[in-house]
Amino acid sequence: NADIRVAGGEIEVIPGKVGRELDVEATMAAIREALADPTVTEVAAVVKTRMPAVTTEDLSHIEVVLGSYSTPYNAGRADRTHNLRLAAGKINKTVLHPGEEFSFNRIVGERGIQAGYREAPIFVDGEVRPSTGGGICQIATTMYNAALLANLDMVERHHHSRPVDYAPTGRDATVYWGQYDLRFRNSLKHPILILASVGSSEVTISILGSRADDAKVEITREGLTRIPYETKEQPDPELEKGKRKVEKPGREGWRVTVYRKATRGGEVIREEKLHTDYYAPQTEVV
Q: Which of the residues 17, 46, 161, 185 has the least number of beta carbons within 10 Å of its own beta carbon?
């Protein structure tokens, strides 16, 4: 496949090459036919041409970074880091032609043990629990923000039940196999290339494309509101009289509305309300 090399802000397209593949059935048929003729001493292998899935032409318009976003992570959490690298590797160097749709679940696939994923913490009904493929939502969140900044059309996005610590409230994205996906469309006039990497302390996703599609994108949040939690008291016959114990800590909830505005050459080309997210508070149990 054609490839891209990015170094020092410069983008270089490495041309693709036409490949060859042995047509086994056709070659065997030719051999069987030759065996019936004692005058034939040599049989030419039947070879099919394999064109690159990503051609030089596909990447000829890759000139600038349209949108890039990074989120911090703790590399000391080995299993979660392993999952991040596995998912990023599936996404890296994905090419989307105009009108094509990116589906996180389709490209990354099911996050099971058989696919090499490990157990790490995730949110389940507002609680943190271990699950195979934990941490993948950080890749989805980073991807979501990069797609927004590249001025692409969002098709499907879901927020977590609780705010995450690696992205601003209202700018996260959760994915769950068979239930929640992250999808966006290349609504630009030229192909785009998605680069995904997991460094020593940051996950970075960049979307590259044509200079003609470049736009200045602003993401703003409004109405960021803290929602206090309630406290529920219940008797515990096993607790010493007069003693109080927090059985389940309370968590504040949040509400926020997110907007996007894109301009090119000083002209507004997109202005929209993306979504209003509500993160429910968690009742404290004493």
A: 17
Quickly count: other Cβ atoms within 10 Å of residue 170's Cβ: 22
CB 63 within 8 Å of CB 11: yes
The per-residue pLDDT for 256 is: 97
Which long-range contacts link 53-58 to residues 24+ away (Cβ below 8 Å)?
Answer: 53/1, 54/1, 54/2, 54/3, 54/16, 54/93, 54/95, 55/1, 55/2, 55/16, 56/2, 56/13, 56/15, 56/16, 58/2, 58/95, 58/97, 58/191
DSSP code of residue 241: T
Q: Residue 35 burial by CB count (10 A; 0-12/13-18/19+): exposed, middle or buried? A: exposed
CB 143: neighbour CB atoms within 10 A? 28
What band does 128 get if pLDDT is binned at 50, 70 and 90? low
Give the pair of three-digit tokens for residue 21. Answer: 């593949």
The pair of three-digit structure tokens given for residue 113, joined into one six-digit string: 């043990």
Cα 263–chain centre separation: 25
Q: How far apart are CA 106 and CA 5, in angstroms?
A: 26
Give backbone dihedrals phi and psi of 27, rounded to 5 degrees, phi first: -70, -40
Closest of 197, 203, 200, 204 to residue 76, by C-alpha: 200
Q: How far apart are CA 219 and CA 135, in angstroms?
A: 24
SS3 at position 193: strand
**Helices and strands of the chain, counted as H and E runs:** 4, 18
Mean per-residue pLDDT for 262-268?
95
The interaxial angle of helices 78-91 and 136-149, nearest 10 deg, is 40
Torsion angle (degrees, nearest 10) of CA 2, 5, 6, 10:
-90
Instruction: Copy the structure tokens of residue 145.
Output: 């923000």
Using an 8 Å Cβ cutoff, are 136 and 152 in contact?
no
> Average pLDDT, stretch 195-203?
94
Decide: pTM greater than 0.70.
Answer: yes
